[in-house]
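Input record (Table S2, row 314):
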Amino acid sequence: MWKICGQELEPGEKRQLMLKPDGMDYELPATLICGKEPGKTLVVTAQIHAGEYNGTPAVIQAAREIAPGKLKGNLLLMHCVNTSGFWRQHWRTLPEDGFNLNSDYPGRPGGTVGERLADWFVKEIFPETDFLLDLHGGSVNEPLTPCLFFPEAEKVREASLAAAKALDVPYLIASGADRGEYSYAAVHHDVPGLLLERGYGGFCRDEWVAGHKRNIYLLLRHLGMYESSEPEADHEPRVYEHVVYLESERAGLWYPAVRENDRVAKGQLLGRLEDMFGNVVQEFYAEGDGVVLYYTGGLAVRKGDSLVAYGLDD
Ligand SMILES: [Zn+2]
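Output record (zinc ion complex):
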């Protein structure tokens, strides 16, 4: 018997339903699979950032394919967490209150929709979770190369990084964040986890969906939960302990000089900021050798907006 979110499942049972977090009038499509044999509990979430589409079809497909009779442990697949943002074609945050489920945790009971949703994860989901996988992508204006974030917090780093290396992702980034869904669970509830990034631009493409789905299966194998014919990755990933998250110090017109997955050398121009009359306001140069993970495509940026994120080689 597996009990979670007010549901009780028998071994070998698969159930698809709309969860109602914290009893709200809010529909979160989910698939619960109770394995025939005991094992770990894996939670997979897609679309905590609305418009980062590729995780959702990956989860939908995996939910249909996975046979409960072959599963060891329990699997909670959340097909689309920011459902209101999804249906309103909103980007990133919850449209109700602007809550960012990847940076505004832990929320609070009795708060706004986003605060209640985060609080529900903290109370109902994290205590029942052995590993958390959160599927993202670049936003509408944010080209990126496939990469993942793992928590650098001591208690969960090793288990998270070992899982990361079992996946098929070229760049693994150590992260000190602790206010997002997977990072809050990692740092404050000792739940190892990963945040995967793949695809961008508000597009849903078959190869990006397939990439996310492949990593769900590779993670299930790594956790000893499910065997599949998914081939192992045939290349070693690169671990980045230091990433520069370049932000704009003022509003302006941003002209990037690099693209995702570009190699950059120390001192290389990353992009320039101009005013509306074409005067160069500021130029940005790479601090060291590395690789561009993602960047803002232009043109309008505000103070504090992200410009480029690049990993440093050393
Ligand atoms: Zn995201």
